[in-house]
Structure formats: C-alpha cells, structure tokens
Amino acid sequence: xxxxxxxxxIVSLLFFISGSxxxxxxxxxxxxxxxxxxxxxxxxxxxxxxxRRSKFLFSGYQIKxxxxxxxxxxxxxxxxxxxxxxxxxxxxxxxxxxAKSGSLSASESSGKLMSGLMKKFSKAQSYTxxxxxxxxxxxxxxxxxxxxxxxxxxxxVWNNIGSEYNYQLTIGDQIYRAxxxxxxxxxxxxxxxxxxxxxxxxxxxxxxxxxxLKLYKSKGKTYPYQVLWLEGQQKSDVSSKIxxxxxxxxxxxxxxxxxxxxxxxxxxxxxxxxxYLEENPDELEMTPYLFRVYKKLKLNGIYKKELEAWKVATxx
Length: 316
Description:
Blueprint: H1 2-24, E1 30-36, E2 39-42, E3 49-50, E4 55-57, E5 62-65, E6 70-75, E7 80-84, E8 89-93, E9 96-101, E10 104-109, H2 112-119, E11 146-149, E12 155-159, E13 166-171, E14 174-178, E15 185-189, E16 196-205, E17 208-212, E18 216-218, E19 221-223, E20 225-229, H3 232-249, H4 254-262, H5 266-279, H6 287-296, H7 300-315
Parallel strand pairs: 11-20
Antiparallel strand pairs: 1-4, 1-6, 2-3, 2-5, 5-8, 6-7, 7-10, 8-9, 12-15, 13-14, 13-16, 16-17, 16-20, 18-19
Helix pairs in contact: 4-5, 5-6, 6-7
C-alpha cells in the first residue's frame, strides 16, 4: 500500500513539474515591432503570415524579412532591443533570438518604461484554471477594490449577477442607475470628480434592495472600495506615456493594455486587450492576460465563459 501511495505521489510531482515548465513556455519571449517592408512569422516553420503590427513572440517562432525590410524585437528577459536586417531568418529560442541567416544585432536598451511593461507578461497560465466551488449560491456582488479613470477612459464595470437585477452606483455624492440587462458585464460611464473617492454598488430587484458591495478585508482590517480620477500632472504623465507607447508599438498594441494595468486603469486595460485580440484572433497565447484583468475586475461570468471557449480553441 505504501509503495502505491509513493508511486502516485511521484507521478503527481512529475505532472506538476512538467505542467510548470509547460506554463513557463506559454509566456512571450519578446515583442516584434517597427516592421518595415515585408516581414513574416511562423509558429511551426510551415505556414508563414505577414506581420502587420507589433506582435508578441514565443519560443519556437521564426521571423523572416524580405529585401529592403527590417524589424525590431525587445527581449523580455534582458530588456535588450535587437535589430533584424533584410533577407534574414531569425528563430526564437528559450529567452533569446538566434539568426539562422542574415543579420541580427543588438540595438539598444528598450528603456525603463518598455522593459517594465514587458516584465508584466508572465505567469499567464495561473489565470487559465478555475477552482470549482460547491458552496450554496447566494446573491453577492463583487468589484475591483481599486481602479483609476480618466476623461478618455471613464467607465466602471462589474459582474452582472442576474438579468432580474438593476444597480445603483454611488461615487462620493454622485449616483448612477444601471438598468437590468442580460449582458454578463454591467458598464457605467462616470462623470469626472476630484481625487480618490469611495464607491458603493447597491443591487435592487425593481426598487427593493437585495444586497450591496461589502467592505473588503485585508490583514484583519476592513476597507472601502476606491476609485481615482486622474487629473493634472498625473493625467499629463499618463497621456505622454500613452503617446510614447503608441509611437513605438502602434495605436492598438497589446503593450498599451500592460501600461493601463500598471496605472490601475483596469477597465481601460480590459478594453485594450479585447480590441487587440478581436483584431488578432490567431494570438490565442496572449488571451490569458485578458483573463488576469477579468480577475482584477471580479468579472467571473465573462471570465468563465471566455476561458471555456479559449480552452476549446487551443486544443483544436
């Protein structure tokens, strides 16, 4: 009996290790950007596709440039930016690039901002597993503990707990009503306010209160949910960095979503990731980073639905 238990334990450990190694390979090695001329990539060395905008690269990918063509790649691990010259074939191996033909040379450091954004693209697989709950279902509302908004990104969202419910959002002394909907996500446009304010969400059935957003606990203390409106120098800094990212990686880049995450602009990050993935449906490897934002926003309904669709797509 002891030998059977030992064997099961060893097999389980090996499965866990192999799963961890596999998960590590699912994170991007670098990002390809500023392509000039004809630049293509392949995942398997057989089918080549044209690169039209910035693209994340994973281990095993290859990049090919045509005559009078070029591209840049920033490596996540080192923060180094590499130049790929014309008529080159470059392979992504481990945490670096290797030239199979043509020219590949170190260009420059990607800078603190870009390197920091790249570092956020890790541990994607931890967001592709849903823990099954056997607890009795209760009417409960949840939302992001903290988030930031701006004039350009003024929306708040939360998980819709049922089409029979409507909601009342209170930010400081501002009150908004959200009608009942069958959508999985409730979305409310908020007017500007000053600084950081506590917010509350009341769930109603008709005009009767059902439940509300409870104070959250952390390290034995309770805290209100907070929303910050970026203005003044904060807004100016954010705007200048958005422009810098767009100038480097393009207006609809996935990298912009990473920046929004760093600012606590979780709704803006979600919208950016969704837009990018809708326009680049073959980049399934990047979808788990959208799941990460869903988790921050407590959007369990859409998270579980899209996770199941993603699992089907990645096993086909």
